Amino acid sequence: MCGIVGYSGKQNSSKIVLEGLKTLEYRGYDSWGIAVQDKNQIKIFKEIGEIKTKLSMLPLPKTSCAIGHTRWATHGGVTMTNAHPHISTTKDFILAQNGIVENYSTLKKMLEKKKYTFKTQTDTEVIVRLIEQQTKKDETFRDSVRKAFNMLEGRNTIIVLDSKEDNHIIAVKNGSPLALGIGKDELFLASDALAFTKYTKDVVFFDNLDLIEIKGNKFKIYDSKTGKEKKYKITKLNSKVEDISKGKYDHFMLKEILEQQDTILKAVNYKLDDLKPLIDIIKKAKRIYITGAGTAGFASGQIAYYLRTISNIDVLDVRPYDFASYFPILKKDDLIIAVSQSGETADTIEVLEYAKELGCTIASIINVEGSTIHRMSDLPYLIHAGPEICVASTKVFTSQCVFGYLLAKSMVGEYTGAREEVESLSSGLREYFTEKVFNHIKKLVRSIKNRNHFFILGKEQNSYIALEGALKIKEISYKHFEGFSAGELKHGVIALIEKGTPVFTIISDDMCSKDLLSATEEVRARGAYTVGVGDSKFRKEECFNFFLPVVKSKELSALSNVVVFQLLSYFLAFSLGNSVDKPRNLAKSVTVK
Ligand code: M6R
C-alpha cells in the first residue's frame, strides 16, 4: 500500500513523478504529494484524495530531481498535514514511506524525551526525526539514513530527497517493493516498475535491506545493515508497454471485465512442456498447499477444486493470514503454490519467506512480472492478463482459475481438451458481452439497488464463486452481500431471510442443481426475492423471480457465472454513484499486514 516514485535525469522531474504516481494510484489514493529539488531548496505540493491536478497546474518549478508519494493512510487521518512526503525541521531533506513502522510509538517517546517535536500523526515523521538525530553524528547523509532505518521494525520502504547535494536521492527497501529503472542519463525509482516501463525496461529489483543511493545519473547499492557496497543485477523486462488507459470506457472495471474474452486465452498460452516442471513437483511433493488473499484466495480455492476433482490431487487451500498454525507441520518436501495478482501481498509473502527458509518449493500463479512473489518463486507462472488497474479484481481471477484448470486437466492427459474448453468460453463471452445482456442486468439493478442485505448461494464448483461474487459487490457497492454454500442455509443463515430479501442462486447444469432449486424454494417460501444466475436451462424454473443466464460451458460454467457478478457489481456501484475503480478505504496492493 502507498506508492513511491523518484526521478533524477534530464526530463522535467515533476512530470515524470506525477505520471508515475498516477500509475501507482491503485496502491492508495487518500492523498498524494511531490517534492522537487530546486537549487538546494525543496519545493512541495500536496493534495488530498485522488490526483486531479494536471501537470500544467502544478505549482512546481521544472527541475531534474524529485520524489513523490501516493498514500493509503495507516497512522494518522487523511489530512494535508499527514500527507507525504514529510520535510525535516531544517528543511534540508524530505522523506516518504511505504509500510508501517511497528515500533513507532517507542521511537517517538524516545525522541520526545530528547526534545524533538512532531507535527503529524504519522509513523513516518518518526523516521524523519531519527535521520535528523543521526545527521548530528554521522559523516555522510547516507550513513544517517542507513542508521536511522536500522532502528525501524516492520516492513517499510523509504525514499529520501536531499537538498544539499544536486540530484541526490536515497532509498531503502524492506518488505514493500521498490524497483530502479535505468534509462539513458536518467534513473527512476518506483514501488512498481510499471511507473517507468514507458521509459526503460532495464530494471534492478532489490533485496530486503538494500540501500540505493542516486547521485545524478549514477547509483550504488549498499547493504543497509553493514553499509558495504553490493553488486546488483539488471533485469530486462519482457512485457510490452501495456495500455493503461480506459480507452472508450468510463471505468477500468468495465474494460477489464470485457477483456476476459482475451485474457483467459493468454493465461493458458502455455505448452504442455512448460507445465511439466510444476506437474512433476506436484506429483513428488509430500503435501501441496495453495494460498492467496481476497479474490486471489478464492482463485486458490477454485484451483484446488479443479485439482481435486479433475486430477485427484489433494491440495490444502489455506489463507495466508491464517497460515501460521500450519508452520509447525510444514516440511521441506512440501510445495506451496502462491496465487496473487500483484505478487506483493504482505501476508502471502510472509508465508513464502517462512517456507523458503525451510526449503519448500515455491510455485506461483501471478500477474505482475518482476514482483516479489515472482522473484521468490522456483516455478513462477505469469498469467499475462496485462495491468489490472481497478481495485476490484476481475480478469485476473478468471485467468488464474483457467490456468489452474489447464494444469489439472494436463495432469490427466487432457491438455488439448482444456485449451479447447477455454477457447469455447472465450468465444462464448465474446457473444455474451452485448447491450442486451447489460440491459437485463441493469433492469435487475434498478429493482434491488435500495436493498441493503443480499445473499448468494452456491455449491461445489460454485462455492468459491458465491464468495467471490459477494466480495466483488461488497467492495464497490458497499452493500452487505454474503456468499455461502447452499448447504449452510438451514444451519443458520435462513434466519436472516425476510420478505423481499434478495437471494441469488448460482446454478450450473451439474449434480448440485436439484439441491440448489430446493434451497431456492425454501428461501422463496420465506419471502425472498430470488434471482437465478446460471445455465439458461433453469430460466423457466418457478422458484426464480428473475433469471440471469450465462455463457454455456461444460466444465468452466463456474467462471461464466462469476462474470455475471462482476457485471452486476459494476452496474450496481455505477448506479449508486460510487467510485467504481477506486472504492473507499481500499488499495489494490495490500503490502502491509
Ligand atoms: O495482489 P493480490 O492478488 O495478492 O491481492 C489479493 C487481494 O488483496 C485482492 O484480491 C483483493 O481482495 C481485491 N481487492 C479483490 O477484488
Strand order within the widest sheet? 3-2-4-1-10-9-11-15
- The CATH topology label of the largest domain is Glutamine Phosphoribosylpyrophosphate, subunit 1, domain 1
Coarse structural class: alpha/beta
C-alpha termini separation: 10 Å
CATH class placement of the largest domain: Alpha Beta
Given as residue ranges, the uncertain stretches (5+ residues, pLDDT < 50) are none
Care to describe what's here?
By secondary structure, the chain is α/β, with parallel strands linked by helices. The protein contains 16 helices and 25 strands. Helix 11 packs antiparallel against helix 12 (415-432) and helix 13 (435-448) packs across helix 16. The termini are close together. Bound molecules: 5-amino-5-deoxy-1-O-phosphono-D-mannitol. Residues 293-296, 340-342, 345, 348, 391-393, 475, 586, 589-590 line the site of 5-amino-5-deoxy-1-O-phosphono-D-mannitol (M6R). The site of 5-amino-5-deoxy-1-O-phosphono-D-mannitol has 16 residues, from helix 8.
